[in-house]
Design a protein that fits this description.
Length: 112
């Protein structure tokens, strides 16, 4: 999610940013990617969502979303506070969340 936060900062600096992209392979739309970010001088919140679309979704329905929140330290980068991810496919559903303590991730929920 840090990469999404970096991209969001590049798109809109501090403040709120939203963007969506069509994912293509050989010119054929296969998915949608959406990102949203809210950054201030001290905190950030980012969310990303990707899902299969079109003919690909008929054969491989996939949806993944993730969120992260934490502190923004300017030139020092991002320090996460928590992270959550959910993955949905035709045959499987899983989720995971973790919190960070002194910079170290601590899983708090893993299910599938």
């Amino acid at each position: 999610m840090g990469g999404i936060a970096d991209r969001a900062l590049a798109l809109g600096a501090l403040g709120k940013t939203q963007a969506s992209y069509t994912v293509k392979i050989a010119g054929i739309p296969v998915g949608l990617l959406g990102i949203a970010a809210n950054t201030s001088n001290r905190q950030y919140a980012v969310a990303g969502d990707i899902r299969s679309t079109g003919i690909v979704a008929a054969f491989a329905k996939v949806h993944f979303k993730a969120t992260s929140r934490g502190w923004f330290r300017g030139a020092y980068g991002f320090k996460p506070r928590d992270y959550r991810a959910e993955s949905l496919s035709k045959d499987n559903q899983s989720s995971m969340s973790m919190h960070y303590s002194t910079g170290q991730p601590i899983p708090s929920e893993i299910s599938s």
